[in-house]
Amino acid sequence: MTSDPDIASVGSLLGDGARAQMLLALLGGDALSAGRLAEIGGVSPSGATAHIRRLRDGGLVTCERSGRRLLVRLANDETAAALEALARIAPRPPVRTLRQSAADDALRRARTCYDHLAGELGVAVTDALVERKLLRAGDGAFDVPAAGVSWFGQLGVDVEQVRERRRAFARECVDWTERRPHLAGALGAGLADAFVARRFVERLPGGRALAVTSAGRRWLRRELALDLA
Amino acid sequence: MTSDPDIASVGSLLGDGARAQMLLALLGGDALSAGRLAEIGGVSPSGATAHIRRLRDGGLVTCERSGRRLLVRLANDETAAALEALARIAPRPPVRTLRQSAADDALRRARTCYDHLAGELGVAVTDALVERKLLRAGDGAFDVPAAGVSWFGQLGVDVEQVRERRRAFARECVDWTERRPHLAGALGAGLADAFVARRFVERLPGGRALAVTSAGRRWLRRELALDLA
DNA sequence: CAAATCGTTCATCCTCGACTGAACTACCCG
DNA sequence: CGGGTAGTTCAGTCGAGGATGAACGATTTG
Fold first, then answer.
1. What's this model's pTM, rounded to 2 decimal places?
2. CA pair distance B52, B75, nearest whole angstrom
3. Does A60 lie at the interface with B, CB-CB under 8 angstroms?
4. DSSP letter string over A44-86?
5. Phi, psi of A113 (to 5 degrees)
6. C-alpha–C-alpha distance, residues A204 and A206, integer Å
7. From CA A220, how far away is CA A78, in angstroms rounded?
8. Closest residue, CA to C1' of C5
9. What does the radius of gyration of chain B's CA atoms come to, in whole angstroms?
């Protein structure tokens, strides 16, 4: 009757366990090699090739050659948003081990989502920025008032320059664990980069979880009056 | 390593063409019978039974018996949001016929999304309400100031009563065609109901597309200064 | 009660796609 | 230039799950 979007084709891409794990890993934000994705998905190199090609053809990831390596990354933040939306309604497998639940905690507290901050940290920072009127919320996107421009600038993020980029400037992304929006888009990516560059956060081994450093903790308290548990 | 949500199981549910069509139809908001879903999915009654059971087990739909009929509806608006998020990144099949493109136009202009208004109409109404400070945006949810409470009341929507309900009061839902947020949640459902009750919109045959009646057009212009194309 | 409608169960068939290993190509490095 | 690594192609196997019709159960209607 009507020409509906072809949800089934995307769904079948996500419906395979290996591909789903690959995509969740790519939600971490950085590009992963084909071999690494093979490990993550638990498949042979040849299998990984096939999966990556299907993901690429489906427009979920983009590939880039670096010498003999194939670097794969998530296509865009709409894809990331769709993954998070799906994660929100997906069944949560029971937590088994202590180590697992610790890893879960870390993930819930702070992580990267594609290329910006998410988890409690991402939501808290966004909320604080809005509260202090350094960011104006509304309409699924954010705007940056003058005070915000200088605040971001002080952190090393040139708002005007970020605004020039072709991708969405400052969109909302609804958090998978918190179910509340946080800053995404080019500005969210810039903020996350700055946090990493200044060593306010560092990546925990083996995933997209982040740890807030003590320097980060101090800075957040001083700058945004955020007291992280 | 970490206990990630089981995206693959949801994905495989959406990965089947018949189920995907059923779900898109259910995005219209009202409950559909098993037989109707069989038609929509293009499968035999027995096939529909199997599909519906899988969707129910996966938590995407809820079922309700009405005599010898089985009424199926979308489980909740998070599921609707996930479907829309997926639709946003899904490939759009090429429009073939004139009739199809007309149907597409109608869908883009105004439709129901689960149980609230979406499309240009949904976004425009939401924007107008925010602009007139009858609704306050921010943080993935909306709030209703005093002026809004009386405005909604005049329309026949009792905000305080709606607020009592267990489901989310007034969340944002990002539109699939417009890519902008519109009013969803219990309040969005109430608004849509009022629009239907007052015959401002009526459902077009065979889908979730809506037509704005001339009465609706007049009212929207008078009340919100909205001039629909 | 009989007939018709709506859905479910079951047994069976069959297709699609995921997986692998082996052979092959491309690239980096000593 | 050769050895090692990263990725790709291909052929062949295999299993999950989707499709179907026939028989049955439940419920409304005449």
1. 0.86
2. 12
3. yes
4. -HHHHHHHHHHHHHTTSEEEEEETTEEEEEES-HHHHHHHHHH
5. -120, 100
6. 6
7. 29
8. B68
9. 18
Q: Which two tokens stand for residue B223?
A: 């009340």
Q: Could A86 and B86 be called an inter-chain contact, meaning their C-beta atoms sit closer than 8 Å?
A: yes
A209 touches chain B (CB under 8 A): yes
CA torsion angle B95 B99 B100 B106 (round to 10): 120
Instruction: Give the distance, in angstroms, between residue B133 CA and nucleotide C8 C1'.
Output: 53
Residue type, A205: P
Q: Is the pLDDT of residue A7 over 80?
A: yes
Q: CA–CA distance from B200 to each of A212, B42, B156, B158, B178 (Å)?
A: 52, 33, 13, 18, 21
> What average pLDDT does this structure show over A181-195?
94
Is A214 strand, coil or helix? helix
Within 10 A of A48 (CB to CB), how many other CB atoms are there? 25
Give A161→chain B minimum CA distance, Å: 24
Lowest mean pLDDT among A69-83, A180-194, B6-20, B201-215: B201-215
> For residue A207, is pLDDT > 80?
no
Secondary structure (3-state) at A162 = helix
Do B60 and B23 meet the contact criterion of CB atoms below 8 Å apart?
A: yes
Contacts of B80 (CB under 8 A, 6+ apart): B27, B74, B113, B114, B173, B184
Cα–Cα distance, B56 to B75 (Å, whole number):
9
Tokens of B42: 């293009």
Spans of chain B, pLDDT less than 70: 1-2, 206
Q: Of A13, A92, A181, which is closest to B5 when you measure between CB atoms?
A: A92
